[in-house]
Amino acid sequence: MHCAIWRALADPDFGLADPAGLDLPILLLWGSRDPVVPALLDGRRARRALPARASSVLLPTGHEPYNERPGLFLRHVLPFLDDPGAVAPSRVRSPSRPRGR
Fold first, then answer.
1. For residue 61, is pLDDT > 90?
2. Nearest in space to 21 (alpha carbons), one of 43, 45, 54, 57
3. Which of 12, 21, 25, 26 could link 84 by a cystine bridge, Cβ 3.0 to 4.6 Å?
4. Could you tell me the CA-to-CA distances from 21 to 24, 54, 91 in Å, in that order?
5. Model pLDDT for residues 21-58, shown as the tens digit of each residue
């Protein structure tokens, strides 16, 4: 399954014709030091392609924010999962240090 997913990414028909037309809450989380999918390039492209109500957070991590800073990651994800409508659309830079656990 893993290989099939990666092969699908190379398919020119993969993806959405108009991601801005999505009518659902979206939360983007990016690692500011990600060498694989750089936030300054790919993150900006993704943010511009998505609806205005999408929220994005830049975390002080590399490629795996959920693994590198799980507490910080969950501090953003859990409120979104509880009530996606309560998370205001934004372009937020996360604090570099968590305030507590």
1. yes
2. 54
3. 25
4. 9, 11, 19
5. 778 888 989 899 999 988 888 888 888 888 888 888 89
